[in-house]
Specification:
By secondary structure, the protein is an alpha+beta fold. It folds into three domains: 37-128, RNA Polymerase Alpha Subunit, Chain A, domain 2; 136-224, YbbR-like domain (RNA Polymerase Alpha Subunit, Chain A, domain 2), CATH 2.170.120.40; 230-317, RNA Polymerase Alpha Subunit, Chain A, domain 2 (Beta Complex), CATH 2.170.120. It has five helices and 25 strands. It has helices spanning 2-13, 15-37, 74-82, 108-115, 175-178, and strands at 39-51, 57-59, 65-73, 86-90, 96-98, 101-104, 121-126, 130-145, 148-152, 156-158, 163-165, 168-174, 184-185, 189-194, 198-203, 214-215, 219-224, 226-241, 248-252, 255-263, 276-280, 290-291, 294-297, 302-307, 312-317. Strands 2, 5, 6, 8, 12, 13 and 16 form a seven-stranded mixed sheet that branches.
């Protein structure tokens, strides 16, 4: 092993090999310089850099590029390939307004005199006319809509609806885009086996053209109290409404059972006085022999209310 290493080191010290490597390197450098010194013709895509845009306007981020056919030496082409070339468009002097767009329409000679040096020949330009859509800045407050897929542990539920902070987002941008925004949705909140309070930071689902818009925030805080729930039942009397004068209506049953879902913390506060069940005589059709009970009043603390009887039998006596 040591012998092989010694032979390699000795070969590098050999003057003949050093001269050969130097000659090879020099030949390669000369070849590269020769190639780069020659002129070539090619078409390159130039990105657009927009400057000095008037403050009252917003230029929409349309994907615009100029394809320019050039003839120049290889050193210049090398620079174009290493760095993305660009054409600067000054909105104070290079464009004019036409209807709802700014128009850029410059000749090859104008480009050559303003953006390229004398060693570059411009042969063609595509497209010869560029248009930039614009809008007037608009500020709008847009409400947030929460998208959720929440599964609770058995016996648990939200004590109140989900609330959002902030509940509205300030959007700034072109009027033709902002005016179309009526709501902003959140990404879907997916939670399972929930038994504690909800406290989640959620990203907003921004529209596809969000690059043209500014948002006061891009995420919101979604919260809700989660409590243990139970079922309650109460016997509630049935009240007859809109019985014509002179008619005596007898009906059965006189009371119905109302079931509901309520949190444990509010269970004791729910009483019969909080509920009202009525039958409206005006809603009877011809030859109908029953009335439909309706729950017209119940406390805000209960949910999933249900009446056990859906038909109240009645007879009319004089």
């Amino acid at each position: 092993m040591k012998s092989l290493k010694s032979q390699i080191l000795a070969s590098f010290k050999n003057k003949r090999i050093n001269v050969f490597l130097l000659f090879l390197l020099s030949s390669f450098v000369i070849l590269i310089f020769t190639k780069l010194s020659k002129e070539y013709t090619n078409t390159v895509s130039f990105r657009i850099e927009k400057v000095n845009i008037p403050q009252e306007y917003v230029i929409l981020n349309d994907s615009v590029n100029l394809k320019i056919t050039l003839k120049t030496h290889g050193f210049k082409w090398l620079n174009y390939y290493l760095t993305k070339p660009k054409v600067v468009i000054d909105f104070t002097k290079d464009v004019y307004k036409e209807d709802s767009v700014f128009v850029y329409s410059k000749s090859l000679s104008y480009l050559k005199n303003t953006q390229f040096d004398k060693n570059v020949d411009l042969l063609s330009l595509e497209p010869e006319r560029l248009t930039f859509r614009f809008g007037v800045n608009m500020v709008k407050k847009v409400p947030v809509v929460v998208r959720s897929n929440i599964e609770f542990s058995p016996g648990y539920d939200m004590a109140s609806a989900l609330w959002v902070d902030p509940d509205s987002i300030v959007v700034v941008g072109p009027d033709l885009l902002v005016s179309k925004l009526n709501t902003l949705e959140t990404e879907t909140i997916s939670l399972t086996d929930v038994r504690i309070n909800i406290n989640e930071n959620v990203q907003l689902k921004l529209p596809k053209n969000s690059k043209d818009l500014k948002f006061s925030v891009d995420e919101v805080l979604v919260q809700s109290e989660v409590e243990k729930f139970t079922e309650g039942t109460l016997k509630i009397p049935v009240t007859m409404m809109n019985v014509p004068n002179g008619l005596n209506v007898k009906y059965f049953p006189k009371e119905v059972t109302v079931s509901y879902y309520v949190s444990l913390s509010n269970f004791e506060s729910v009483t019969k006085k909080d509920f009202m069940v009525v039958c409206d005589f005006n809603k009877i059709s011809d030859n109908q022999t029953f009335l439909k009970p309706e729950l017209v009043r119940y406390p805000k603390t209960v949910r999933n209310t249900k009446i056990d009887y859906q038909h109240i039998e009645f007879i009319i006596t004089k």
